[in-house]
Amino acid sequence: MTTSTTIRMFVLTLLVLGLLTGCGQTATPASNPTTPSRSQGAMVPVLALSELAPGPNRIAVGVLQDGSPINDPELSLPMRFFYLDGDNSAEVRSESTAVYRGEGLPFGLYVGYATFDQPGAWGVEITLPQAEGEPIVSRLRLDVLAQPQVPAVGMAAIPTNNLTIRDQPDLTRLTSDARPDADLYQMTISEAIAAGQPFVVAFSTPGYCQTAVCAPNQMVLKQLKDQYKGSINFIHVEVYAYPFGENFQAQRFVPSMRDWKLRTEPWTFLVDANGIIQARYEGGLTFAELEPALAQLVAGEPITPPSE
């Protein structure tokens, strides 16, 4: 369930439906309305994540209805979490509500948060409204790793020398972004850690994104970069080296991806002035979710997820 194939399964559904036309642009359903009718079939949740670790975690969920992903800003999903390896697996350990975080993304994404106090088998109970009758409760297993492969919240950011504009002045060979912003390629992660200032680092490939959210994510980063200029450094690491298409086909990641032990994309990390990761985001991001987190980051406050 919480393997790298989970998010691929959701994306594969989108691809089959013809919703994704490439990462460089935002695709929307051709046959479904933005807000689907609740008179249709049952809704089914799909977890859009690849790894969970002890501590705070972002729980991203897609929803299918009649086999198609929905994009309903009014939908929210109550979630309850259980520790299945404990003596009382029926005890509710925490609750959250996954709210709409699909603005600008090619499909509806619903995001809640959970804190797991120990590794092992966990369960999530997701309540989904239905066209008729009572809501349906869907139960899914969550595997929380004892030792996360991807750097987790509370860990030190990994110093690495990603390519910058000093290494390659031609931005078209530095990033697959169709509209590159030179400000995102001014420093390495190693330099950002040494600078003693908060920073955001995004590992993504806007031109070859397998989840179709890299380009929308990049637009959010560019907007926030201007808002927090001088307070937070922003770094984009292109997942594949130039020539991008050739390395994408061969699935050859740049060294910084290997240094951070990333096997999927996109990933975005918020790092404080002491070089400690304060938040991590897998997959699609929106301004509404990220901007409050950056306000807390620059203020030196703990990052708590927005409630709405």
From TrEMBL:
Every copy of the Thioredoxin domain together lies at: 162-299
What Pfam family is a match, any one?
Answer: Thioredoxin_2
Recorded superkingdom: Bacteria
Keyword match Acyltransferase: no
Q: Which SUPFAM superfamilies match?
A: Thioredoxin-like
| This protein's UniProt keywords | Signal
Signal sequence span per UniProt? 1-27
Which PROSITE patterns does the entry link to? THIOREDOXIN_2
- Could you list the residue ranges forming a coiled coil in this record? none
Keyword Transcription regulation assigned = no
**Name the UniProt record assigns to this protein:** Thioredoxin fold domain-containing protein
